[in-house]
Specification:
By secondary structure, the chain is α+β, with helices and mostly antiparallel strands. Helix content is 43%, strand content 19%. It has one domain: VSR Endonuclease (Endonuclease, Chain A, 3-Layer(aba) Sandwich), CATH 3.40.960.10. It has five helices and four strands, in the order ααβββαβαα. A four-stranded mixed beta sheet has the order 1-2-3-4, with helices on both faces. A hairpin with a 2-residue loop joins strand 1 and strand 2. It is globular and about 30 Å long.
């Protein structure tokens, strides 16, 4: 279960929305306004003690767009702890680096689409035999 909204992170999330990277802006242009399977995404959304880059509640999906600082060992350790916390909340975490988002946009969107299709729109159960 996802923890309640952390009001203490509201200011930080607003600041991050104003300072989005080029990769985050590009991805947001494809996710905003329910463009992907009608799923609503939020950007720079507080989830527990963290502010995640993109969040889709209907798909229980977090998308992180990582800059080069995520390659540093210490930052990588924090990412692992963050991902573990989010997964314990029942969330799927997708991580893409800035380069992937900027140069392989279609592939990134296909992966997000695939996860949303599985998690936000589960297949309908088959009709019972003999039913109408």
């Amino acid at each position: 279960m996802v923890r309640p909204y952390n009001h203490q992170l509201k200011g930080a999330s607003r600041k991050l929305r104003k300072q989005m990277t080029d990769a985050e802006q590009l991805l947001w242009s494809h996710l905003r306004g329910r463009q992907l399977l009608g799923v609503q995404f939020n950007r720079q959304k507080p989830v527990g003690p963290y502010v995640v880059d993109f969040f889709a509640a209907a798909a229980l999906l977090v998308i992180e767009v990582d800059g080069s600082q995520h390659l540093q060992e210490e930052h990588g350790k924090r990412d692992v702890a963050r991902d573990l916390f989010l997964q314990e909340q029942g969330l799927t975490v997708l991580r893409f680096d800035n380069r992937q988002v900027l140069l392989e946009t279609a592939a990134v969107l296909e992966e997000i689409f695939r996860i949303c299709q599985q998690r936000a729109n589960p297949p309908c159960p088959p009709f019972a035999k003999g039913g109408t």
